[in-house]
Each structure stands twice: as structure tokens, then as C-alpha cells.
Amino acid sequence: MTKIAIIGSGVMGRSIAYTAALAGYQVYLQDIHTKALDDAQAYIQKELKQSIARGYVNPEAENEIQQHLNFTTSMEAAVSDVDLVIEAVIERMDVKIEVFKKLDEICPEHTILATNTSTMSPTEIGAQTSRAGQCITMHFFNPAHKMKLVEIVRGLDTTDETYEIAKEVALGMKKEVVEVNEFPGFVTSRMNCLIGNEAMNMLMEGVASAEDIDKAMKLGLNHPMGPLEVADLVGLDSRLRNMEYLYKTLGEKYRPCPLLIKYVKAGRLGRKSGIGFYNYN
Questions:
Q1: What are the tens digits of pLDDT across the range 164-183?
Q2: How far is CA 129 from the centre of its chain?
Q3: Most buried of 45, 48, 101, 109, CB within 10 angstroms?
Q4: Does the annotation place 58 within a ligand binding site?
Q5: 5 has which bridge partners?
Q6: Are residues 203 and 237 in the same domain?
Q7: What is the pTM (predicted TM-score) of this model?
Q8: Are residues 159 and 45 both part of a single domain?
Q9: 121 is in an annotated binding site
Q10: Is 279 contained in some domain?
């Protein structure tokens, strides 16, 4: 495993690409939008400069890390000679299936196809390809270069060899790994969505302010971030899609909070839009 392609250069894709480059992999970051790639490149350069300034990265390694990163709008160019593809597109099953079908057609036979989904079925995604045994979930957390965990989720047909390779790659990126047998929401999203949704319900009911709800969770339960801060970081549109999927698959307790729906309709998407439960402007 020396070459990795990342499909989608949004919040997660660019962070995973940076993480892989730091670990010494040759990385090909692909997106259909040139502007998104330009933004991703600027983000990675900024993070690299900050990591060097803070002593996390050796200054002498800067050029080598930059040489590990390749940016392209062509999926064919990105995956033509890679060992692993990590899909990081929008959290919609139809889009992910479309991407995996194309990847199955154009990737080398040995290439493993991983999805970074936080909730959706790797079995369903992998079943649309001719290599279900080589399909798996590698769920990174935002920002991937700082968060320690990768959830590795087996689909029904995922082989032991595929799991071991995915684990080896995650460990090579200096991550901790948990192995999960597929079920909607896996471990972290299933818990995190419940906590966040209840925080939103409490805010809607006037139980406490957003600041005090988050403060209570941080100081009372030792969470590093409050649930509303986390939702803003993830993106409220992404959180709503996750909640809708979990509501569909796991039932009533995952019904999205009406306040979340209202905020998304209003364009209050969190940090990326400048306003969510907090104002970032």
C-alpha cells in the first residue's frame, strides 16, 4: 500500500488526503470542481504551515509532503494506479453508489474501495460492484489529521484480507482502530447523533442556551466539545442527512429535531456557512 486516491475534496476528503500525505503515502485527491480542489490545496498548505510552526512536523519534511500530494479533476487519472481508494463525497446513498460503480470499472483489480460514510451500509454500496469482498468503510473523524480514531466497518462480504489492509493503512496514519460489524450508524455516529439531537431538542424547548448546554457536557461529562459545537463543525446539513438515514433505518428515537430542519432550510449550516447554533462571523 503506497498509493491512495481520495474522491471528494470537501471537509473530510482534504483532511484525509493531508493525513495520508503526512504518513508518507502518495496521494491523489480528486474532485469534479476545480474551485473545491483549489480550496483543498490552500487548506492543506495552511495546515502544514501551522503543523510546522507548532513543532508537529519537521520543517525539512515540508517539500516531501507537498510532493506526495496530487490534485486532479479526473477520476480516471486519480485511480489508474492506486492500491486504495477512499470515497469522501456527500452523505447520500445514490451518490456513493454511483461513485463506487464507476470506481469498480476503472480501478485496477487489486484496488480496495473504502467509503468514509459515518452511517451508511458498506454492504449495500459494495453490492453494486463486482468486488464486494474488497469494499469496506474507513470512517475518519473531522479533522482527520488531528482525530485519533478510525472506525473500520466490515460489510457482509468484506474479506479478512481487506480488513487487515485497511487496518494497516489506518495504523500507518498513526490512528487507533475499532472494528465494527455493520449496523446503521456504527458505534460513534449512532451515539453522537442521539446526543446531538437531544441537545437540539433541549435548545428548542428553552431548557438552556446553546452555550450552557455545551458547557454542561464539557465540564460535567468531560466531553472535549459540546454537542452543538460538534454539529456546527460537522455541518448541519450533513447531520440532518445522517439523522434522516438513522430515522429511516433505526426508528423513532432518531427523528430529526425540528430546529435542525429549520436551520438547514434557512441556510444555517454551521461553521462552513458562518452561522449555525453559533455565529462564526
A1: 999 999 999 999 999 998 88
A2: 22
A3: 48
A4: no
A5: 28, 85
A6: yes
A7: 0.85
A8: yes
A9: no
A10: no
